[in-house]
Design a protein that fits this description.
Blueprint (H helix, E strand, L loop, with lengths): L4 E7 L7 H11 L3 E5 L3 H10 L2 E5 L7 E5 L4 E5 L6 E6 L11 E7 L8 H20 L6 E6 L7 H7 L3 E2 H8 L20 E6 L1 E9 L8 E8 L1
Parallel strand pairs: 1-2, 7-8
Antiparallel strand pairs: 1-12, 2-4, 3-4, 5-6, 6-7, 8-10, 9-10, 11-12
Helix pairs in contact: 1-2
């Protein structure tokens, strides 16, 4: 593992992503942390066989979530409207190569479409508000906030979070004179927009990769971070 932490975030499309193919992807990428959204039971079983720690709560109604870990961590849920965020605290006692504790938040913000439209807008606004209230309480805690935000950089959800956190994929790409890769949808010839993000505070992205995820409408996001 070293002082660098590898995080993989993936929306598994409520069973759409092939469970065994995803488990093989995790084996191949060798992440320390896997944050999953829209996690189905068979996908949870396959992931748990690869990474033994963490907590997974599968469901078929687009609410399955969880965080799988290579080493032990303290898992809690952060109540949000409709769908909780998941929080993993990685302490140096269990992760001795880390210079200090790191917090990982797994987030799945509600999609903007729905009826009536104003209800979805209000739900998204409240979800982000609760998320930021939580993180503002400990602003010096190094943390990564990853997941499916259902928002491109043009949307208010993204802009509110980016006002508090670094967009790690964007900073990594800018430093290399490129643009961050799109993550959704995988159909129609490849991903067109970026709605899966990795935000961070007190962290530096040493590597970022968007990885194909067969069966899902999303690509997976893999990043290597170190404490700044």
């Amino acid at each position: 593992m070293g002082s660098q932490l590898r995080i993989l975030s993936a929306n598994l499309a409520s069973g759409g992503a092939d469970a065994e193919a995803f488990a093989e992807l995790v084996r191949r990428c060798e992440p320390d942390v896997v944050a999953v959204q829209e996690l189905a039971p068979n996908q949870a079983e396959a992931l748990a066989r690869v990474l033994p720690y963490g907590e997974l709560s599968p469901d078929l109604g687009h609410t399955g979530m969880g965080i799988a870990l290579r080493c032990p961590g303290r898992l809690t849920r952060l109540p949000l409207y409709f769908r909780d965020a998941w929080v993993a605290q990685l302490e140096t006692a269990d992760w001795p190569d880390l210079p200090r504790s790191i917090e990982i938040l797994n987030v799945h913000i509600s999609a903007p479409h729905g009826w009536p439209p104003w209800s979805q807008t209000l739900r998204r606004h409240r979800q982000v508000g609760r998320l930021l209230t939580y993180t503002d309480a400990e602003p010096d805690q190094p943390r990564a906030v990853v997941g499916d935000f259902n928002a491109t950089p043009l949307w208010p959800v993204y802009r509110r979070i980016a006002a508090r956190f670094d967009d790690l994929a964007s900073l990594h790409a800018r430093a290399r004179g490129t643009r961050p890769a799109a993550t959704w949808p995988r159909w129609f010839g490849g991903p067109l927009i970026r709605i899966d993000h990795a935000f961070g505070s007190g962290l530096v992205a040493e590597g970022v990769e968007v990885v194909d995820l067969p069966g899902s409408d999303h690509c997976a996001l893999v990043l290597d971070v170190t404490v700044a």
